[in-house]
Design a protein that fits this description.
- With 369 residues, this protein is an alpha/beta fold.
- It has helices at residues 15-24, 43-60, 74-86, 102-111, 235-240, 250-265, 268-289, 317-326, 351-368, and strands at 4-5, 66-71, 94-99, 116-122, 127-129, 132-134, 154-158, 160-161, 166-167, 178-181, 198-202, 213-218, 293-294, 306-311, 329-330, 341-344.
- The protein starts with a strand and ends with a helix.
- The mean pLDDT is 98.
- The structure holds 4'-deoxy-4'-aminopyridoxal-5'-phosphate.
- Its EC number is 2.6.1.52.
Length: 369
């Protein structure tokens, strides 16, 4: 059996998909070619691409008035490409950002280069929630507190802060378009496209391998890009060319397509959401009753995907990681900005893997607590 991999991304793949890709590696469906060797304009790859888009649309119930773009550059490139493509929606070239963790903070900072960018709200301060003190970036600013300028082109938020472990998806219906970085919880739960106007994600957590970036954008927001926006990153041009304006990341699209088919076999996004909830509940309920470990995120916004936790005796961190790896539990080290541990339990992690982690944690606590 392979070890359990808790990496935040690139992260664990569904094993069935790895096997399928292995069997198709040298000869895809009798074509005599690996997908890597195919022309991106040939009929074989066009079929792979079209099925991947359709499966993604089916899974997320993407309405017809949204374009699905397969791009490159990762989610961080979108920190520049969102303003380059969308600030022009209104003449004032303004946008408002909600900062709820490291990733949305990066988005906010990069957007500054392109226009009049303001904070709509930030959780980057200690606050009181239900009478208990909540640390900076461990909570999510209530939508009722957001300061959105009526002449803003869009509001930007992050639905799951991969480092802080803060997840929020209860979006308000705003008068300006809502742009959501869904990199680390895409396909783990439904997206309400009556409230979300643009959703983007680096694929390398729930959707596929690194190298593919998915952008889902309402079609009437296309056509307002900054004249300096490179063609290869211009949403309107990419949409018009079916994500084939230049050579797309063909093998990543193929693998993402296999992940989408796997997810359909699991019962789709509603079924996987239930499984994700059960996995997260198992780990949080253990953390909450323990005096040895703790998670400091406000309970209402705890991530189902990325669960950071601290040992109350940080001098045991290295030993924890060494013993965990020996027990077949890999990549549990927390992000350096928060320390401690982080278990990323995306769609591909079965309940069995989370149970193995909890069993190990119990044993470690019994030996060292
Ligand atoms: N946003 C979020 C929520 C992320 O988790 C990450 C990567 N971990 C990024 C943005 C940046 O993604 P990329 O490395 O694809 O640029």
């Amino acid at each position: 059996m392979r070890p359990w991999n808790f990496s935040a991304g690139p992260s664990k793949f569904p094993e069935a998909v790895l096997h399928k890709a292995a069997t198709e590696m040298l000869d895809w469906h009798g074509s005599g070619m690996s997908v890597m060797e195919m022309s991106h304009r040939g009929k074989e790859f066009m079929q792979i691409r079209d099925e991947a888009e359709q499966d993604l649309r089916d899974l997320l119930q993407v309405p017809d008035n949204f374009a699905v773009l397969f791009m490159q550059g990762g989610a961080q490139a979108q920190n520049a490409l969102v303003p380059l493509n969308l600030l022009g929606l209104k003449p004032a070239a303004k946008a408002d950002y909600v900062v709820s963790g490291s990733w949305s903070k990066k988005s906010f900072q990069e957007a500054q280069h392109f226009g009049d960018i303001q904070l709509a709200a930030t959780s980057d301060a200690i606050t009181q929630i239900h009478g208990t003190e909540q640390g900076a970036l461990t909570w999510f600013p209530e939508p009722s507190t957001w300061q959105v300028r009526p002449d803003s082109s869009y509001v930007h938020v992050c639905s799951n802060e991969t480092i802080g472990g803060v997840e929020f998806n209860d979006w308000p219906r705003l008068d300006v378009p809502l742009v959501v970085d869904v990199s680390s919880n895409i396909l783990s739960r439904p997206i309400d496209f009556t409230k979300v106007d643009v959703a983007y994600a680096g694929a390398q957590k729930n959707a596929g391998p690194a190298g593919l970036t998915v952008v889902i954008v309402r079609k009437d927001l296309l056509g307002f890009s900054n004249p300096h926006c490179p063609n290869a990153f211009n949403y309107e041009l990419v949409a018009k060319n079916n994500s084939m304006l230049n050579t797309p990341p063909t093998y990543s699209i193929y693998l993402a397509g296999l992940v989408f088919k796997w997810l359909k076999e699991q019962g789709g996004v509603v079924a996987i959401e239930k499984a994700n909830q059960a996995k997260a509940d198992l780990l949080y309920s253990y953390l909450d009753q323990s005096d040895f470990y703790r998670n400091t995120v406000a309970k209402a916004v705890r991530s189902r995907m990325n669960i950071p936790f601290l040992l109350n005796q940080p001098q045991l961190d290295e030993l924890f990681l060494t013993e965990a790896a020996a027990a077949g539990l890999l990549q549990l080290r927390g992000h350096k900005s928060v320390g401690g541990m982080r278990a990323s339990i995306y769609n591909a992690m079965p309940l069995e893997g989370v149970q193995a982690l909890v069993d190990f944690m119990k044993g470690f606590e019994a030996r060292h607590g």
